[in-house]
Amino acid sequence: MQGLFLSGFGLTGRRPCLNFGVIFWSIAAVITGIIAAVFVAMKYSPKRRAARFEKNLAGIKKELGDIRFFTVGTVPADFERGIAAMKKARWIDAADFFKKGLGKTSGLQQAVRFNFIGICCYLGRRVNEAPGNFLKAARLAHESGDLEGEGAALGNLGLVYLACGEIDKAQEYHLEALEVDRETGNLQGVAGDLGRLGFIRQAKGELDAALEYHQEALKIDRETANQHGVANDLGRIGLAYQTRGELDKAQEYYKQALEVATDARYRQGMADILGNIGMVHKERGEHSEALRYLLTALRLFMETRAEAKVVNTLKNLHILYRQMGREDFTKGCKKHETDMSNLNRLIRLMEKLDREQARAGATS
């Protein structure tokens, strides 16, 4: 994920594809921004327990973006605890809760758990453990005849490979997911697949083809009133134009994306887009504006506990401060990429510098 974001995942590469250390990219939403396609085992009883479970799951969906879920049976206590841990961004604890019931379940219920474990491993920065869990989830869902669950797991698998920079594998699994989602008529899944396939074409430098995918995804998301998806699609289109060097056009789409994300209270999308806008200002040499947008994005990523995106933002700030000749902040950003303790103190210092520069600009 980890240099550009598009509402969720990132990877690394170089132009003419994408300069991942310099631009954000919103792939939707992991909290790395993962656009998590999740299928959930739910049969609510009693009412109070069901309401709590539903509320926690809704909170996760709001933060992560495009989550897909399905009802397949009961909700045991360990599963509820896993969802509660996810709500608090305790990803590894959540994965452990989901693992506990693996030996007591089979078929689709087991597929559900493997899918959640994969998501938690990704968000908990144990990315190497995620693909195996998604593969098991896809296989079990397929064997159980649940094509929607299979499509969800395949989509997640493609996202993880995209985040790791394995473009060909990512494309393979997203194409499989697209086929399944079209077969089941899952329009939200189709739009997500198209958006990520467009992103892959963009990473390969095929910008015209990428824009076609993004525009098709945008059309579907608008028709289905999927505001998170609309924000992601507009952000991806903006990024394609930014990669082309058409910065004014990129800014136009980012502005639209930010308005949609703000109206939808989609904080993860807002942070991604603000980061992208910051990088446009950086490319123009407008360091003060770039700093302001990147710091706002960093705050939002901190609030949503999107650790991978916090790290990416610090890397972009590292580069920006080096260009500004502020080696003190350059070293601070580099340190906190691996150690986030006392990061709030560093952010306050960076925000103080931003205010000082703003006052200096106003009086000059």
Cα-atom radius of gyration: 20 Å
Overall number of strands: 2
Mean pLDDT across all residues, rounded? 80
Quote the beta fraction.
under 5%
Largest sheet: 2 strands, parallel
Q: Percentage of helical residues?
A: over 70%
Strand order of the largest sheet: 1-2
**Structural class from helices and strands?**
mainly alpha
End-to-end Cα distance, whole Å, is 40 Å
Number of helices: 16
The multimeric state of the shown protein is: single chain
Overall geometric form = globular
Listing every helix as H and every strand as E from the N terminus to the C terminus, the arrangement reads EEHHHHHHHHHHHHHHHH
Q: Which regions are unreliable across 5 or more consecutive residues at pLDDT < 50?
A: 1-46, 65-71
